[in-house]
Amino acid sequence: MNRSDIDISSSRVLIADDIQQNRELLEAYLVDEGYEIFMASDGQQTMQMVEQHNPDLILLDIMMPRMSGYEVCSQLKADAARRGIPVLMVTALNEIGDIEKAVEAGCDDFLTKPVNRLELRTRVRSLLRVRHLANERDRLLAYLEEMEHRVLRGE
What we know:
The chain is α/β, with parallel strands linked by helices. Helices cover 51% and strands 15% of the residues.
């Protein structure tokens, strides 16, 4: 399978930022890609949206009320059912310590604001392809494990 053959157009993307204009800008940058987009305005709402919609990717601001992006990312990566969701931190913070803290929290990539449209779209596509391939791998491994059990049972 060629990387360009992977259909990511139906992917679910969660945009989490406490500033409405930022959410709307990111949505506008991605709307032509065909993704199903959900939005959250704080950390706790982000966790609720993850439970409700099981996104394929999260664009996550760091500085949010009720739970920071660091905390959201750490909780997601500590949860075996959610750790595979790629997290792209999108933040105005650009100190090396902020980046280190984002990486320690488990983020998969980060962008600094103001966001460049091309860079955002490219990174989103890349992370969604990785997510899709990981899901395909997991399905294949589950199938192979089931086949192995059937063979061992003589079915």
